Amino acid sequence: MTNLNISADPKGSPIRLAAPLLSVNGLTKRYRHGDPLAVEDVSFSLGNGEILALLGPSGCGKTTTLRMIAGFETPDGGEILLHGKRVTHLPPQQRRIGIVFQDYALFPHMSLGENVAFAMRHIAKAKRPAKAREWLDLVGLADLSTRMPDELSGGQQQRVALARTLAAEPELVLLDEPFSNLDAALRESTRKEVRRLFKAAGTSVILVTHDQAEALSFADQVGVMHSGQLLQMDRPERIYQTPATAFVAEFLGHTNLLEGMADGEIAQTALGPVAIDHRQQGPVRLSLRPEHLSLSAAPDDHGATIVEREFRGHDCYYLLEHHGQRFCAITPSHILWKIGEQVCLEPQRTATVLRD
Ligand SMILES: Nc1ncnc2c1ncn2[C@@H]1O[C@H](COP(=O)(O)OP(=O)(O)OP(=O)(O)O)[C@@H](O)[C@H]1O
């Protein structure tokens, strides 16, 4: 991976663009001799003002990656560059990185205003209270600046923690599951608000989460990790629509994994001929999202059988059986099929050819 974004002008000569804010090259970490690698050869870069979500199951190496970027863990291999400068072995306080961990501990003996002002050591002391009010205003809590942390709800404490992080004016903010202590409704609204705040401040962010909906809605780029490796990184819509592997496809939502025999742009599968997104010959493994399958009345008894139905309000999730294989489909809920009914199951979009 290069450390500089290089593009070409129309005449073909390379133009050197600014280094990305953060580059991580071949980052590797093993905690103890004999343990598997916690992080294995992870490389990516992050532009100014960009939001990246690192997504993956528990133990896949997300937090370790974040802690190495913050400077709390030393990598065994690879390097970390900020603005093209190597910071791999610099202590955390020399990296201008803000961190919000899951428990976002505020100082209990300080008011909200004091908590935020504490982060502003780069500003003259006399100016800090007014500036702290401005940051609290940004998160909608200026009126509560004299309150103590234990007089706030979990969601309010979360927002103060964010105001405190932003008040230090870091170039990069690392968020480790910062919304996990909030209930579902508050989590969604806080997430939207926090994204808006970061975008307004132009701050770059890396969010660690195991919640795929959170990653897809919060980030500009999503990286999926598994067993210490970064399997794929791409824009949310692209990683959802064109997953590289079966693991990525399944981690980002429901999918149908189909074995097929490809001949050019079509593969023969248990669902009949299916259009595929890459020209290919021979055996292929495909991913087809459930919302890309349509259900219609079967002319005879040869269709798929509905074995499960989950009504979800605006759509309906079906589990179907066809020639001994199971498929899932999601369709708008204005037409509902009954369990036991026979239906025609037809792919409406191209299926994605998986790498493995
Ligand atoms: N301090 C440590 N000492 C030894 N092993 C560790 C330590 N911290 C993490 N690990 C191991 O490293 C691997 C990666 O852990 P890590 O915390 O980075 O994963 P994660 O994806 O953030 O998981 P979670 O979502 O559960 O926080 C795991 O196998 C974990 O057990």
TrEMBL record:
Residues 22-252 form the ABC transporter domain. One of its GO terms (biological process) is quaternary ammonium group transport. One of its GO terms (cellular component) is ATP-binding cassette (ABC) transporter complex. GO terms for molecular function: ABC-type ferric iron transporter activity; ATP binding; ATP hydrolysis activity. SMART domains: AAA. Keywords: ATP-binding, Cell membrane, Ion transport, Iron, Iron transport, Membrane, Nucleotide-binding, Transport. InterPro entries: AAA+_ATPase, ABC_SmlMolc_Importer, ABC_transporter-like_ATP-bd, ABC_transporter-like_CS, ABC_transpr_FbpC, Mo/tungstate-bd_C_term_dom, P-loop_NTPase, Transp-assoc_OB_typ2. This is Iron ABC transporter ATP-binding protein.
